[in-house]
Amino acid sequence: xxxxxxxxxxxxxxxxxxxxxxxxxxxxxxxxxxxxxxxxxxxxxxxxxxxxxxxxxxxxxxxxxxxxxxxxxxxxxxxxxxxxxxxxxxxxxxxxxxxxxxxxxxxxxxxxxxxxxxxxxxxxxxxxxxxxxxxxxxxxxxxxxxxxxxxxxxxxxxxxxxxxxxxxxxxxxxxxxxxxxxxxxxxxxxxxxxxxxxxxxxxxxxxxxxxxxxxxxxxxxxxxxxxxxxxxxxxxxxxxxxxxxxxxxxxxxxxxxxxxxxxxxxxxxxxxxxxxxxxxxxxxxxxxxxxxxxxxxxxxxxxxxxxxxxxxxxxxxxxxxxxxxxxxxxxxxxxxxxxxxxxxxxxxxxxxxxxxxxxxxxxxxxxxxxxxxxxxxxxxxxxxxxxxxxxxxxxxxxxxxxxxxxxxxxxxxxxxxxxxxxxxxxxxxxxxxxxxxxxxxxxxxxxxxxxxxxxxxxxxxxxxxxxxxxxxxxxxxxxxxxxxxxxxxxxxxxxxxxxxxxxxxxxxxxxxxxxxxxxxxxxxxxxxxxxxxxxxxxxxxxxxxxxxxxxxxxxxxxxxxxxxxxxxxxxxxxxxxxxxxxxxxxxxxxxxxxxxxxxxxxxxxxxxxxxxxxxxxxxxxxxxxxxxxxxxxxxxxxxxxxxxxxxxxxxxxxxxxxxxxxxxxxxxxxxxxxxxxxxxxxxxxxxxxxxxxxxxxxxxxxxxxxxxxxxxxxxxxxxxxxxxxxxxxxxxxxxxxxxxxxxxxxxxxxxxxxxxxxxxxxxxxxxxxxxxxxxxxxxxxxxxxxxxxxxxxxxxxxxxxxxxxxxxxxxxxxxxxxxxxxxxxxxxxxxxxxxxxxxxxxxxxxxxxxxxxxxxxxxxxxxxxxxxxxxxxxxxxxxxxxxxxxxxxxxxxxxxxxxxxxxxxxxxxxxxxxxxxxxxxxxxxxxxxxxxxxxxxxxxxxxxxxxxxxxxxxxxxxxxxxxxxxxxxxxxxxxxxxxxxxxxxxxxxxxxxxxxxxxxxxxxxxxxxxxxxxxxxxxxxxxxxxxxxxxxxxxxxxxxxxxxxxxxxxxxxxxxxxxxxxxxxxxxxxxxxxxxxxxxxxxxxxxxxxxxxxxxxxxxxxxxxxxxxxxxxxxxxxxxxxxxxxxxxxxxxxxxxxxxxxxxxxxxxxxxxxxxxxxxxxxxxxxxxxxxxxxxxxxxxxxxxxxxxxxxxxxxxxxxxxxxxxxxxxxxxxxxxxxxxxxxxxxxxxxxxxxxxxxxxxxxxxxxxxxxxxxxxxxxxxxxxxxxxxxxxxxxxxxxxxxxxxxxxxxxxxxxxxxxxxxxxxxxxxxxxxxxxxxxxxxxxxxxxxxxxxxxxxxxxxxxxxxxxxxxxxxxxxxxxxxxxxxxxxxxxxxxxxxxxxxxxxxxxxxxxxxxxxxxxxxxxxxxxxxxxxxxxxxxxxxxxxxxxxxxxxxxxxxxxxxxxxxxxxxxxxxxxxxxxxxxxxxxxxxxxxxxxxxxxxxxxxxxxxxxxxxxxxxxxxxxxxxxxxxxxxxxxxxxxxxxxxxxxxxxxxxxxxxxxxxxxxxxxxxxxxxxxxxxxxxxxxxxxxxxxxxxxxxxxxxxxxxxxxxxxxxxxxxxxxxxxxxxxxxxxxxxxxxxxxxxxxxxxxxxxxxxxxxxxxxxxxxxxxxxxxxxxxxxxxxxxxxxxxxxxxxxxxxxxxxxxxxxxxxxxxxxxxxxxxxxxxxxxxxxxxxxxxxxxxxxxxxxxxxxxxxxxxxxxxxxxxxxxxxxxxxxxxxxxxxxxxxxxxxxxxxxxxxxxxxxxxxxxxxxxxxxxxxxxxxxxxxxxxxxxxxxxxxxxxxxxxxxxxxxxxxxxxxxxxxxxxxxxxxxxxxxxxxxxxxxxxxxxxxxxxxxxxxxxxxxxxxxxxxxx
Length: 1893
Description:
The chain is an alpha+beta fold and about 1900 residues long. Helix content is about 50%, strand content about 5%. It is built from 75 helices and 30 strands. The strands form twelve sheets. The chain has a six-stranded antiparallel sheet. Helix 38 crosses helix 40. The longest helix has about 30 residues.
């Protein structure tokens, strides 16, 4: 056959005979046995040759496979069954040969017996559910399969369940990766001694057969691979080949599963180089093998790889290995045999044009790296197999096979080396792949198994240059997407950066390689090699510099950008993954002194790279304006290694710092970022679109901040501590563009900033200084202190759940750092700073989660606004933290007013950074502070309270950190003349505070008020409204100052110097045509910082002389200053605190303060002092206040509305209802008045303009779910537990109805029962009324409203215009006066006989209504339409029970059943009984009265034939009893005793014209009670045993003639028994009936109880009905006395009834006709039925009337039990495991959510089930997400989860995978909403499901 196939393709004929000899073919087993014997002989050459020949034949690769690859037609012609048949034959042969003649299965079992493997090694693919235990794991990648996890003991461990993203393998038993204590029972180390040695002959055949088999597989792979044509991706062809090879690869996979013995044979075969050479070299006469070898070489070459020996042959096409062509070679790959490039290569070539000009990467010329990239030599099957696996883009089956082999140690090493050898090739394939995501996952699936093992990683690093390979491959990969950097000097920049728009970065294609790199760097031995190797470090810094300055933003100044690029996602991800994470990995190994050398290396090469970068971008001293990049990974490497060096390695900081010039350059870019952040928040970048805000947020966001903003701030702190403070401070204000604002003049011009941005930029600059000076994250805090500070900051912004805290706290990104989420320190710090607030449950409230909230002492002592500002992504969080702080102070009574952010003492600085505090003691800062204080005091514009707050904060910081105690005789010997000496004498803040400044010269616009005065040096202080910083000597210019400093440091030639120090006037003010000219004015100031502070105190307190030095009264204040380390209060307290500290630090200050206070001058010009207490607000602030007021009002309004909504929605609390006027029967009201909530008018409901109640109609099957036992059913969690619904109320009623319909007349059956247990219509209202015409126009407006609503207007849905409750219909209110209500109450003294007659007459009157149906009125139309709505609410199957479709009886039955459903449901809402009494729980919101009117109106249309009216049978004796048996063929009517009494009641009531009179009602109830009681007696008689019956028959018969015989149950019972004994009812008791007989002996008490229980449900429903119709309150009572209370309330008990005797139910009877006659008449009907059907007759008599309340299924405590059973459960339709399994919580049915397999007529299974099980309401638990989804009709919503973790949190989609436990309160809330039908009102987020769930 093989030959035939080959011929069909036109291949060469194989030289062998066409088929094996017939004998062989017939009996494979015999042949195998024969060969095995031959091979077992000592001299086995002959056997071996014979076997080889056989294998040649069987496994010939000249197979239709090639045909399949060349085109389908040929394959089809490939004879036989296409390729498949031959393949199967070959596999059969292999199995036979392996087994050596025995059975293959036996062989497998035999091999398994010798499995020594103590490893699990189970390999899984994506989406598999696995576990990770951090307590047991050594490597962070450790994972376990579910089975090993559950078999091991992990109680109390920190573990979680996760869905594997890339696939993985189980590490159980591998002590390199996890601790042995965590191994499961199966893999606890077996000692190898007890595994017997493998017998030689068992696997002998395998050793011969497998090499050929694997070679055959490789040949297939070679044959099947065709180089992709230039334009067509060839995935299709590859997949086809793989499908054909499926059986072969599966066969290999099965072999690996046979255990260790077989794996070691496979390892031998795969790694044996001799075998490989012999079989694959392609030498030899076999043409087929030659061709195959050629294809292999072509494939190698087209991959850009060379086969070393062939270098000479193909040398011509290879470009010389010069630097410029490197990229061509590495990426375009050596060209194919024909020399044309395929398309992807051409693109690469275009990309490489510019490379020649670039600064090349240094290492590219070395040949070593060249060979890394493009030489591959395969020496074994394993190597070539891996090659093809990569070539075919990692097919899942191959990956699984290769991984299944890993438990074999020898294989593991060989495979890892092979993998490393192919690493460069993997990268190339990955770059070209179209499916890079899938491929990435598969690569990581393999590499994580190899590189997580430290021993192995070390070995490969040493032997295979793993690190060199990885770094080189990463470098090459990134080289393909470089572009010229535009930062700084666009024209001449030599720097290249990655282009974030390229697919490589956008799709994260690099992550598998980076993640491998991070993984191996986590091993200490590997990381040390990396840090010691200078060449590698240089290369790595080169790699990092590709990211330096990427994704540059240029500020748009004119119009908004057209296209917002989203490349910033890629940029941030790349910096985090490719730069920061490897950095954290390396840092984790630099923890001790001994590692100092490593840090020195890194810092050295980092600085070199930075210097290169500055040179490349031509950076001198000024950053280019209006551009910013957030990516400075080189700066951050440098910063983090510095920090580590000082913190852990005790290195001297100065020894690793560069010179001053380099420090100046270093600080520029990080500072630029800080200024840009302020600009972005000031809306200066608004034209760049939203994405720039996104970048600013990402930069500080919790996952990025410790790799981004923290290192930047730290680096700035280092620079500040080493540079000249004046220089640094002036740089800051210049970067923030607020230099011009810092003038004492009241007006100024700012050439670089618009006025509206000045305020927020100034705030930004000051805030930055405060952060810079207060933050101690890298300056001396310990890890625990940092964690605590981070946690406090997050908790102060908002209460947080445990998981969001874990997420928000920037953990050290390196997994081995120790601050692992959930680690000891995290939990202990959390419990120290926060209290747990368990979730609260109010029905109707939103679902809350467990939250952590800061403890009081944290607010009191640890709240740190600086940390909060640093960590907030949204500015509103800062406000939120302040609001919460204010609330705390008010509540605890610590401070009533509006507090300022508190001042907090800082952790002491590490000695290395002491220089940072010099910033606080430099004149430049003092001048700025002085100026700002002055401007605030003078009310200049653009200053805010925030500015003042920061100024005071900085002054206080300076006082706290003042250097040495200053001597009072300040001997300030200044060095050379410094420019600011005219301002302040020294640089110490303490002494500068008291220094008075008299005159300042300022430059002001000519229009300024200062200019208009005569004498510039005028001393009059009144008109001095302002000034600019300069002493009398010189204008103070920050810019010039900074330039000068820069110059001092860099001594350049004078010509350059002139160029650089441009006088301020020339470069700033001479903008052509600028506003008014500037002139110089001199202001008189005569203030010092101290005097300004004191005046400020007056100004803030609004009183003159408000400051009084406290020490004048109490000298103690100075001697023992108890300044708390934490201070609450506002500006006034802050000023007082500062003055006190100043006085403490120097006697001079103290004296001066006293002096100033003595001669207090008016603090501000007199015209300014008004009654206003606070400073006058400038426009901006007024606006803001107004805005705040508005917000407050809105918030208040919203909260009011919310509280109204909650009370309106509340299900359970009648007391806080808002009263709604619904007609309640009160005698004095003449007519019910309704308010229309739309037009607001009130009035009665009339025929022409009827009013209606807003109602929601919904079909409900809740009643049908009642069962007769109290315990709810459990959700099945094993195969055995199944739930059968035969005992539910719905099922029982169904059975009963169908029984009746079998034997009795249909129309009569439909009057004997109620329906609506399933799919009954429940009507509820919010109690609001509206005119029906108003409602129609309201609906119209909703229809035209295009806003997306959560409901469908076309289906009549709307929300109540007043309370927004969901509704879908309007129930018309029946116009009626309440006059008759007083008639109703009168006790009637007419005899029951009269009343019975009246009732009968009333029923006979057709349509006796005030509204005659014939004349159509608006009211009757509405009544009809609402009836239609009611019918359409439920499905047809729930209202058509008649055998003749469309019969009127159906409607009749449906209508009275609606009334029944609503009454029964109300009963359930009251808890199943009426003991609590009181008004209806629904309060004013019951609409039963109106509903009754509508139903009655429609019932009257069907008059019951008076013949069949059951009323007759109840109240009259029929003359001749035998007449009924006249017509045998017609089905009889239902006997009265089989009727459902409650149904009869409703029929009777609804048939009487409304309004009904009370005495008629009572009469009906009395009559029906007699029937009910008789039914109870009959049921009792059937239940008891034969002896009991005869005993009772006698005792009762004796009393029959007593006077009250008709009211004695014994007499009646004995009469019933004797009557029924005439029929066959009791006879049928054979043996099988004994089960039904209750063994208990009946005592009189138990019989009385049985009778009462039988009658109670009827009494309850009747009492409810009476309550609704006549508005009487229900009495409350104990459960024991419920019967007697209800019966007296209904008027069944005679009033004179004495309560002394024990109560007997029979005393309520009031027989309308002689009891014995009517009973015997009723019994006769039954006897005549039981003549024929005794069995059924009996079943129909026993009615189960005691239903318990409905419940949802009971759920197990732990979610895992549900998950483990259901997530693997298969769908019953398609037997696959569904993607989204769900389970119904009402009945336990397993369904597929969105599963297409179970779709029926476009309805998916969940929707279908919700209709069948809940008549449109479904409650499903989604197994894979742990959440509950509610389906209600055509809408659905996510309800939330009833399973919470240990911290009271949901885990939607099981993302965290922590153990979840049932939250009983939530489940109760869910059940409550189900029973009370309030899903629609309480859950807000509904959406349409389009039947797709």
